[in-house]
Amino acid sequence: MKKSFLIASFLFLLFTYQSKSQWAIMTHKTDSLVQIGSKHIYNIKFDEARVCFEKVIKLNPNHPAGYFLDAMVEYWKISIFRNTRAYDQIFLNKVEKVLTICDKILVENNTDITALFFKGGILGYRARFYSNSEQWLSATYDAKTAFDIMQQCLIKAPNNNDIMLGTGIYNYFAAAIPEKYPIAKPFMTFLPNGNKKIGILQLRSSALYAKYTPIEAKVTLMQVFYSFENDMNEALFYSKGLLDSFPNNPYFHRYVGRVYVRMSNWDSLENVWRNIVNRSLDKWTGYDNHAAKEGCYYVGLALQRKNEIEKSQKYLFKCVEIADATETEPSGFKSSALLKIGMNFDKLKNRKKAVEYYNKVLSIKDYDGSHEKARNFIKNSYN
């Protein structure tokens, strides 16, 4: 059940992106603040973003945009700072403020597209929050409500290039998710069918021509090509472009690294993940222990392939050390790192230590056949 809701949460993105197409109805000054503040979010400059959005609220106290974006600062904090729940209630409180502003407008005019966009958007984000927190009933209720609101918005403005991001996301994921994850089908029966080809065309159009949502369109295309289409050239094009625009964003940085892993581009992946490790150790914003653990593993793996065994061991041991310090139960990274450490000891002709680490693999959960590999290496050394 958890997996299906997390997958379906991709669909909730469409509600949030639609809202940005209405920002142009505000003054030029406010519109500029929205643009600047949004870029601050992507640059992980949360304090600067909040200052911008506070100014938007002051200039437009009865418009939902500033309140919506202020809530998004907290949502990104939740996404970036993965080891704390400190921002959860703050986010939920700010969601309620957005809903209050929107509902006040809708009492006067129940077809006001601005209020509908932002209400659907904030409910979509809250649905994603609830699904990630495994609060399934709340997630389903918000998602269905947001979907109904979205239907009204699409009737009013079906061809706007900013709105096309939302229709593209819907069209693609409504078709792709049931194909890849049949378990999700029962939770999507209330949604109309999608079309992947049309969805990609709409997303590309938004990436090229939208005024407010080209960045979000590129993020979505990056996700589509990496996770669903298995087109690493396209995934690299979008992830690298995003990282070039926002070089301090750990989310984009990790995507570039993972694409290089999928491409088996060992030199590039080593350089990218080494940079991620260094930033994590230097405590850059958003470069957390999870990123350091992942990075240490991939750098260690790249060094192993170059037969730089001692250097490889250094990174793999660090991966295990971080895992031991941060994980409540051993992860796939720890299991794989232990296996690679054993293989390195075999290369170093230290059979006793190699077997010791193969046995450590057997002592924790099996990931992707790690137990079978460890048993094979116990019987016959890696060399």
How would you summarize the topology of this molecule?
Blueprint: H1 2-19, H2 28-42, H3 46-59, H4 64-80, H5 88-108, H6 113-132, H7 136-156, H8 163-180, H9 196-209, H10 214-228, H11 232-245, H12 250-263, H13 266-281, H14 289-305, H15 309-326, H16 332-347, H17 351-362, H18 370-379
Helix pairs in contact: 1-6, 1-7, 1-8, 2-3, 2-4, 3-4, 4-5, 4-6, 5-6, 6-7, 8-9, 8-10, 9-10, 10-11, 11-12, 12-13, 13-14, 14-15, 14-16, 15-16, 16-17, 16-18, 17-18
Number of domains: 2
Count of DSSP E strands?
0
Proportion of residues in β-strands:
under 5%
Order of helices and strands: HHHHHHHHHHHHHHHHHH
For the largest beta-sheet, the strand count, sense and barrel status come to: none
Uncertain parts: 1-25
CATH class of the largest domain: Mainly Alpha
Determine the N-to-C terminus distance.
Answer: 43 Å
Account of the 3D structure:
The protein has 383 residues and is an all-alpha fold. It folds into two domains: 2-229, Alpha Horseshoe (Serine Threonine Protein Phosphatase 5, Tetratricopeptide repeat); 253-379, Serine Threonine Protein Phosphatase 5, Tetratricopeptide repeat (Alpha Horseshoe). The protein is 76% helix and 0% strand. The chain contains 18 helices and no strands. Helix 11 runs antiparallel to helix 12 (250-263), helix 13 packs antiparallel against helix 14 (289-305) and helix 15 packs antiparallel against helix 16. The chain is elongated and about 80 Å long. 48% of the residues are buried.
